[in-house]
Amino acid sequence: MNKTTAVYPGSFDPLTIGHEDIVRRSLRIVDRLIVAVAETATQSKSGLFPIDERVDLIREVFGDEPRVEATSFSGLLVDFAQAREARVIIRGLRAVSDFEYEFQMALMNRSLWPEVEVLFMAPATRHTFLSSSLVREVGRLGGDVTDFVSPGVKTRMDRAFGRAARE
Q1: Which of 2, 135, 142, 167 is the most buried (most CB within 10 A)?
Q2: Is residue 11 within 8 Å of 47, Cβ to Cβ?
Q3: Is 46 labeled as catalytic in the residue annotation?
Q4: Is 5 helix (H, G, I), strand (E, B) or coil?
């Protein structure tokens, strides 16, 4: 029996509980999931964590799940997926505003590699408003991000912003 491997690409800067939700739910439909941190952003974003630290945070958060692998990649996503024998790309859609961009990317990826399947997943309702950039901004401005990220991510965010971790 062939095992299904999928890639869940993104910036994950920082990894939010919305991302975690997509990862854990993806494991219901795939046997193995590669959470792939893009070294080159497809959209202009100001980063908080270096690539290696984002990969480390993903490994830390999913340390209890052997079917999740965290790594970084550069270049075309389809080339990375093909090299890793992943025929499925997972993308999260929070709102209609995400759809147009994600749809264009999916069509381009399928044009570059017709055998790839792109699965769009809606996050749990309680996470639909979350985005890494919004969480980053709340943290940067001194807001409490406890409800939006895992404890280890929050600790590193506090450290990155020069604050002691809040209890």
Answers
A1: 135
A2: yes
A3: no
A4: strand
